[in-house]
Structure prediction request, 339 residues.
Amino acid sequence: MGKLVWPVLLGAVTLAVAGCGGSSHTAKHKISTTPVKRTVSPRPAIPTVLTETVRGPASKDFLPSVDARSGEMLLFKTYVPGRVTSPAETVSLTFASGPGATLTVTAKAHGETSRVRIVSPNHKSLTLQLLRYNCSLPPVPTFCPAKSAVSAHHRYVLRFSSTHRAPIYVSAVVGPVKTPAPKVVRSSSSVVPPYAATEVVAVRPPATVTSSPAKKSVPLPQLATATVKPGDSVILLTHLKGTVLGARQTVTVTIDQGPGTTLKASASVPGGRVTTATIKSANGSPIAIVLAHYSCSVPPTPTFCPARHIAAQSHRYTLKFSASPTTAAIVVIGTVLAG
Prediction:
């Protein structure tokens, strides 16, 4: 619902061999202690001012504008102004939902403003739909929970409290596309039998950037057991079934971090059956799940956010949410590394 490398510079000395000299023709070797100068690509500079950027499916870079077509997914990234040690700032994000041939996303924080544009290359009207924001699990810093997330008057408005260490990521689908109408129901306090939880896993291989036009995203198979290799993304989904008008129930999701050749993810509600998804190593070597995060829907899509409890200990993630069959599926995404 993601996928960070620092270069290491090693010192070195060289041996320079001098030419032969003298009547004895004895070779004389001299040792130079001058380090070899190596060219190292500079680390990309992290903005120290408020910076809003967007990445489309055909690019690996975050940019100030993007050409977009119906059906594509966009990822928005917000860098909070300040330094690593700066305190948290309140960030306001306003997404124009359209319709329009050009849509604008505006970020405001600390008296600064930054914008990106989504442009229709064929001048057809576009919309932004199915907004989600990603919350990192410990020990990675996060801007969650959201202070507010609403949609009205052809725009989405989200507010977070974040630091310079935790960029804000929000994804959206470019419309118009047909999506299931959100199940809008009044909140209920009706006590109903435990909901039936189903835990499944989908696997997404590492993204590659080609010169060919971006294709529309294809749904990934959701399986009870999946085989993965380092570099893959694992997408764990928890679905609930039961009485639609029942009150929300506490859903507990546990995920093995590893390392191990087989990792498990389970989900349950109090009094209900535990369901498990299995993640297996493709080559039989230990694997681990890192950089895990969960994905929150923005209204009008019903959501299970904010989380009631988050923990990472004893090589296992434990998450608790308040959810019902009317909320979107609970989605947790992690990256597979060699253990």
About this structure: Confidence is low (pLDDT under 50) at residues 1-33, 35-41, 209-215. DSSP finds no helices and 22 strands in the chain. The radius of gyration is 25 Å.
